[in-house]
Amino acid sequence: MHLSPDAIVLWQYGPFKINGTIAYTWALMLLLVVGSLWVTRRLSTGAKRSRWKSLVEIVITGIDGQMRGVGLREPRKYLDFLGTLFLFVAVASLCTVIPGYHSPTGSLSTTAALAISVFVAVPFYGIRQQGLGSYLKSYTEPTPLMLPFNILGEISRTLALAIRMFGNMMSEGMIAAILLTLTPLLFPVVMTVLGLFTGMVQAYIFSILAAVYIAAATRVGDGEGAREKPESRPDAPTGAA
Amino acid sequence: MLIDWFTVIAQAINFLVLMWLLKRFLYKPVLNAIDAREAHIVETVQDAEEQKRTAEAEREAFAKKNEDFDRQRAEFIAQAREEAKAAGERLLEKERATVDAIREKWRSALADEQERFGDETLRRIQNEVFAIVRQVFRDLVDTSLETRMIEVFGHRLRLATEAPDGKLAGVLRTAPKAVRVKSAFALTPTQQASLRQTLSEAFTADVDAHFQTEPDLIGGIELIIDGQRVVWTVEDYLAKLKSDIFELPSGSSSPWKKGKTGKETSIHVKQEGV
Which residues of B touch A6 (CB under 8 A)? Predict the structure, then answer.
């Protein structure tokens, strides 16, 4: 029983290795790219389109709508990042129904990598939107005294992102494994369904939180004064999930 | 250790690569297709609205044309009715005039026919009557009608000249140099001498009489004295008889009876040429 697919080492040469996390990630990447190519091979601009194309369009326009809902003015700028986050986590969770599969998101390394990506993306988009000076100045608001707390908040929320997803995904696998040993019939099926649900919820939460952070970082540049409304800043870790 | 930093870095790189791949193969084509479809839908809707506006405008134009057409049709029908009525009246008037003309022509033809018939009848009557009378005079009276007519003419002429206010007296008052005597029959020398004698007595002077035969007179003698005609014929009598025949109302008495009772043959004086 592996707690994390990291422990499944397929190949190693010094510090370089290919473990289960990387291998499953590559498999997911391949699946997503091939699926994209298959779905978009003959895109029609007319009223008629296939079910799969409609599904993909619904997913993408849904992500677009959600991003707009959390306050991003131009969601398409952030669709690459946020959409990929959602699709990767969601597909990684959906694939748990495949026997022998271990979700890469069950690895703290993966969730940490995704959290670090968010951690980098937030200032990246913030600086691109409002400039370096204006972005850095936002850490000293409402008062310079808040600077350490703001920096601490940035780090802690990144850590929270990583831990939250890892905990949820790993625990789901753990619970399923434990219950499988206790009640091998029927109950694990229910747990698998529940796992699919929590996986989708995690994908949604992770993407939405990333969107909210980016929205908070870019909103100052939009002239809405997000920092003037402390209650609207989603710095506080959302421990609910 | 739950975190393997090599794996973290590898996953971060994997994530970036996946992001680029999905952007290249998924988001861009799908978003482009969505944009194109939206543009197409917008264009279609705009086209539909344009067509709707055009159709509305055309419908209004058509309704207006229909209204104009109905109005014009009503006007045309009313005008056509008026014209037909006027044309009908004109035709009726024309036909009426034609009928009147035909009726007038018919009346004229009828009158002409009556005239011709009357003339023919009179001519036959004259011929027949005079043939009979001559025969009667020859057979029963043992004299000719003409001789007897000359005697009566002389007697009447004398009576006429004796009437002081008579029209004939004025004509005979001045003795003419020459008198033409027309008769329907050729006068014998005896008759001519008798008539010349009568004229000399009437004018109390010798008169140079020229005798001339005029078969149209049928019976009687006509003197032409200085442009005046002294008529002693049955022409007037017969003319009266003709008018009595053709103008006689139905149920009236016979013209013969009237002629016998009401009319008396007498000498008339007329302008020559009448």
Answer: 2, 4, 7
Write the CB contacts of B152 (distance below 8 Å, at least 6 apart in sequence). Answer: none
pLDDT digits (tens, 9 = 90+) for A94-151: 998 888 888 898 888 998 899 999 999 999 999 998 899 988 888 888 889 999 999 9
- Among chain A residues, the shortest Cα distance to B37 is held by A45
Residue A228 or residue B180, greater confidence? B180
The DSSP code for B139 is I
**Residue B185 falls within a domain, yes or no?**
yes
Which residue in the block uniquely carries the two structure tokens 């809902």?
A69
Structure-model confidence comparison of residues B2 and B102, the more confident one:
B102
Does residue A194 sit within a domain?
yes
The residue length of chain B stands at 274
Is B260 inside any structural domain? yes
- Can you read off the two tokens belonging to residue B60? 């209004």
Distance CA A192, CA A187 (A): 9
Domains contained in chain A, number:
1
Give the C-alpha separation, A139 to A141, whole Å: 6
**B209 domain-assigned:** yes
Angle at B214 between CA B213 and CA B216, to 5 degrees: 155
| Residue A237 resides in a domain | no
Encoding tokens for residue A4? 């994390």
**H helices within chain A, ranges in order?**
20-39, 51-69, 75-94, 108-130, 132-137, 147-182, 187-219
Testing the interface with A: which of B1, B7, B21 to mutate, by most A Cβ within 10 A? Answer: B7
CA nearest A81 in B: which residue? B19
- Is the Cα dihedral B17, B20, B21, B27 positive or negative? positive
Pull the structure tokens for residue B229.
């005609």
Instruction: Please give the residue range of the domain that contains residue B227.
Output: 144-271
Which residues, in sequence order, are bridge partners of residue B269? B230
Q: How many domains does chain B have?
A: 1
Residue B229: inside a domain: yes
